[in-house]
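B., you asked whether I could sanity-check this one before it goes into the benchmark set. Here's the sequence:
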Amino acid sequence: MSCPDCNRGSILAGKPTGSIVKVNGTDAYFAPSPPSESAQSGSNGSVAVVLLSDAFGLPLVNIKLIADKLASDLQCDVWVPDLFDGAPLLRVEGMETQLLPDRPGYSSLWDSFRLIAFVIIPRIGTILRSRPSVGDFRAKQFITAIREDKKYHKVGGVGYCYGGGAAVRLATTVDYLDSAVICHPAIISSNSIKEIKIPSSWVCAEEDSSFSKTARMRAEAVFAERKDSGDAVPYEFVDYKGTVHGFACRPNLAFEDVKVAFEKSLEQTAAWLRKTLNE
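And here's what the prediction gave me:
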């Protein structure tokens, strides 16, 4: 979470239509497949999607609105587990305004210093209590619980920022997810990418301190090498011009490039999950 854009963005307008429920004693947002539409087009009760949030967690309304949108588009249940046990890494009220799109990814040393001094250090205890290994464990427990309780045949995952890193690590086994969409992930290792065992779609920002152009190109090269070696898994990478880390979950819709990229990223997500979960 050393990228200044981790703490930048905008709050989407709208009121969630789902609800907060308890799963094994932990809060989760649940957006069910819309019953009114299911009567016409057929609700897919055997499929579910789990959204793995950014560092703002459930208090940020954006992740709930995205869950509602995907539940409607995919006609399936969508869940958002609390990866932070009620204490998100970042506070919604501390979110900074997103950068102008004509300066994608711009951040000075002062920006980085402010993030470390005024955001990370004061919340270091909270951050350590929900470090990636802990968040991964909570995600695994949650997915296992809903699979057993709801008898889902397939579960797709969509990860944003912190949750994007978690999605990559969960994708290194077939035990939890059947397909994944990874949106501008937190820093991830090349070894994790080499070990991915399920189809993955990547939503990439033009400028991203956490997932740089070099890291992004290296990741795609890993998949290409695996294909050549006979160890292939389906994948795709899509880059969005004029965007920075966080655009797929905290977009400033006042900027046309960002608005279009956000909408296209949702289309990419829905199309990939529809294709890979319904096969």
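One thing to flag: The mean pLDDT is 90. Otherwise nothing jumped out at me.
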